[in-house]
Design brief:
The chain is of the alpha+beta class. The chain is about 40% helix and about 20% strand. It folds into two domains: about 5-55, no CATH class; about 65-184, no CATH class. A hairpin with a 5-residue loop joins strand 8 (about 130-135) and strand 9 (about 140-145). The model has no long low-confidence stretch (mean pLDDT about 95).
Length: about 180
């Protein structure tokens, strides 16, 4: 019958499991022998550690810790949902840019890249340099006719995403921001 071993690091965290038949213990590993039942417990419940040469079960979470985890998960889900839905932008001076725009990581990267290009070159990227087509969440293009309007849009997206991040992190006083904004 094979023997089971739990390898652990200097802090006592279990880093690997070994079986005398299937996976012999490397000479560099620090291990303790464990029973089949202990091995099954370690596999089914994370957080086991080695303390003073003995396997120790994880401390059960308190009700407050469980509630904090659930709150964090709910906040993260709200943020992901908001990012996926996008930001509705209404322009008082250029109704052609009115629409709901993606604000996911890809969109944020593209917006930042275009803003950087504008700062460096004083124009939009692309062949015309005088306007920029930007697609809404449905894929319809909207023409931004000026750098000023696009920069207001970029600022609105950055503010929205930052407020979402603060809300998702549970920052004191942070609330789920409105998914719509008005720019000039």
């Amino acid at each position: 019958m094979s023997k089971k071993y739990a390898a652990f690091n200097a802090q006592g965290a279990i880093v690997a499991f070994y079986d005398s038949n299937d996976s012999p213990v490397p000479s560099s590993a620090t291990v303790i022998e464990i029973t089949d039942a202990e091995w099954q417990s370690c596999l089914s419940t994370s957080g086991y550690a080695v303390v003073d040469g003995a396997l120790v079960a994880p401390t059960p979470l308190t009700a407050a810790q469980i509630e904090a985890q659930q709150t964090a998960q709910a906040l993260a889900a709200s943020v992901q949902s908001a990012l996926a839905a996008g930001l509705t932008v209404t322009s008082t001076s250029t109704p052609a840019v009115n629409g709901a725009y993606p604000v996911d990581a890809t969109a944020q990267t593209k917006i930042t890249s275009i803003e950087l290009f504008i700062v460096k070159n004083g124009t939009f990227p692309g062949m015309s340099g005088t306007s920029l087509a930007w697609h809404d969440v449905l894929g319809a293009p909207h023409i931004f006719p000026s750098i000023a309007i696009f920069s207001e849009f970029a600022t609105a997206v950055a503010n929205y995403v930052t407020d979402l991040d603060l809300y998702g992190a549970g920052a004191s006083g942070a609330t789920l921001p409105a998914a719509s904004v008005t720019i000039s």
